[in-house]
Amino acid sequence: MSKILRNIVEWRNTLTADKLKQIVALFGGLLSAILLFLRSIGVTFDWFSQESINAFNQVLLNGIPFVLVIYGVWKNSYIVTKKAKEQEKLLKEKGLK
């Protein structure tokens, strides 16, 4: 289990804006392929169109960085958890903050 977590952390540390765009584009391409397949067999949905796929891609492109920033702010805040408050106190005692 720790190897999986280590791989996730390593992947997150190497995630760049370009890689994020590629991942979202890959997901959008997958949705477009599903849409094309469904249309080829005669299955249509009013809500599942190329416009909705493009809108969803935009939500992902704008939402994922927002979530990552919020997560970073949360993790680097010293007022949220008891452990963080203890770390802040220790840093102040050592003169690092």
Task: Give descriptors for this structure.
single chain; 97 residues; mainly alpha
Task: Summarize this structure briefly.
It contains 4 helices and no strands. The chain is mainly alpha-helical and 97 residues long.
Written description of the protein model:
The relative contact order is 0.07. The two termini are 35 Å apart. The chain has helices at 2-13, 17-40, 50-75, 82-93. The chain is mostly helical and 97 residues long. Helix 2 runs antiparallel to helix 3 (50-75).
Number of strands: 0
Strand content: under 5%
Tell me the distance between the termini: 35 Å
Could you report the average pLDDT, rounded to the nearest whole number? 81
H/E element order: HHHH
What structural class do helix, strand and pairing data support? mainly alpha
Rounded to an integer in angstroms, the radius of gyration calculated over CA atoms is 21 Å
Total of helices = 4
**Major β-sheet, in short?**
none
Topology:
Elements: H1 2-13, H2 17-40, H3 50-75, H4 82-93
